[in-house]
Amino acid sequence: MDNGYSTDPGDGADAPAGAEERKTLPTTAGQTSPDNPWPLHHFASVLKNHIERAPETWIEGQLLEANVRNGHAYLTMRDVDVENSLSVTVWRSTMDRLETKPQVGARVVARIKPNLYLKTGRLSMNASDLRPVGLGDLLARLERLRQALGAQGLFDVDRKRPLPLLPQRIGLITGRDSDAEKDVIRNATLRWPGVEFEVRNTAVQGVNAVGEVMAALAELDRLPEVDVVVIARGGGALEDLLPFSSEELVRAVAAAGTPVVSAIGHEADRPILDDVADVRASTPTDAAKRIVPDVAEERQGIAEARLRLDRAVYNLVEREGQRLEALRTRPVLAAPEAMIDSRAEDVARAADRNRTAARLAVDRAGTDLRHLRAQIRQLSPQHTLDRGYAVVQIDPQAAAPAGGLEPGDIVRDATAVPHGAGLLVRVAVGSLDATVTATHANNT
């Protein structure tokens, strides 16, 4: 079958027509044309067959109308979150089985199946069962949603953002001229007179609440001067607070870039919005206390801090003065010249010791020098000459004699000096020139 309807042999097309007409009838809706259309009854039959193939479905909503005539109930159900409604018919056979009769404003679930009445072409939803949604059912459903969102990490503490110490401007989403709006603004202004608000009035219950609150949140989140957003509503029945447990609103708050404070209902009320918000306030008044500091408390805190600072400075100066006084009473500061005198005496004693040590060292060195001089003199050639010995050399001024000796050489072997060689004889005092006339082989 294409994007239209088809003429299945079992589609209920039971209009009187000849075999020739059925042969020329388009097979599908897409094959129809101005020259070859479907008869109205054929289209209605095909449409009825297509609609009634839909399975029975459980739906949930709130009853806007509940008219009972001749045992049949003609209801109008509205979605709890958006502005959608649907007509539902409950036939007498089903009404007889119901434990409670439908009432306007009640929240119900119905098992419906679509039906097309061929005679008038009217589409209706026939309910085979209708049950009121009790408080326990609502709580159980909310708890399942809370657990599912928590498992996705939407309530984790590490993703919650801290509130600014002093917000520049506060976004407030609440009902028009509501007590919650007055409580937040009045208490915040009393605590910090300079606080500024960006107020967005929305529906806070009913089918329009979720959409309007989400739109206001998105608008405030885009304003750079808004540092925190407060969603506030007074107390009410569980059904009245259901919009603040909407999954769409909860996810919108989790995705917001601005910190969000939830102030819904009273202390005992806890919609799912409280879990995903960055800060949960038990009441609108509590929200005002959380978003701005108390100017009186801040002034008192500043005064106390100044007193503590003054006391700390005074104590510091006092302690340092005592330390200075203690230092001044020490001997080294009471008579500083004593330290110089004692050091001068030490220097004088050290100088005396150095002079004495130097004198002794010089005396010892002089004695050693005299001993060394005596030893050297005993070993010197002059001392030997003084004893009567002489030093004989080949005359340095003469030509080199035979025998391999050179001028100036000392004569140690008399036989090595040739006859006639000139000699220089050194004695203790002076020297003599001599000429060799004879040599002797021994000392005799």
Q: Rounded to an integer, what's the Rg over CA atoms?
A: 63 Å
CATH top level class name of one domain:
Alpha Beta
Quaternary class: single chain
CATH topology of one domain: Rossmann fold
Structural class: alpha/beta
Which architecture name of one domain does CATH use? 3-Layer(aba) Sandwich
Strand order of the largest sheet: 1-2-3-5-4
Overall pLDDT level: 84
SSE order in H/E notation? HHEEEHEEHEHEHEHEHEHHHHHEEE
Helix content, binned percent? 25-40%
DSSP summary: helix tally? 13
What is the total tally of β strands? 13
Task: Specify the biggest β-sheet.
Answer: 5 strands, mixed, barrel
Approximate shape: elongated
What would your notes on this structure say?
The chain is of the alpha/beta class and 444 residues long. Among the domains are: 61-109 and 128-133, OB fold (Dihydrolipoamide Acetyltransferase, E2P), CATH 2.40.50; 140-293, Succinyl-CoA synthetase domains (Rossmann fold); 385-435, no CATH class. 40% of the residues lie in helices and 19% in strands. The protein is built from 13 helices and 13 strands. The chain has a five-stranded mixed barrel. The protein has a five-stranded parallel beta sheet with strand order 7-6-8-9-10, sandwiched between helices. Residues 1-6 and 9-22 have low confidence and may be disordered.
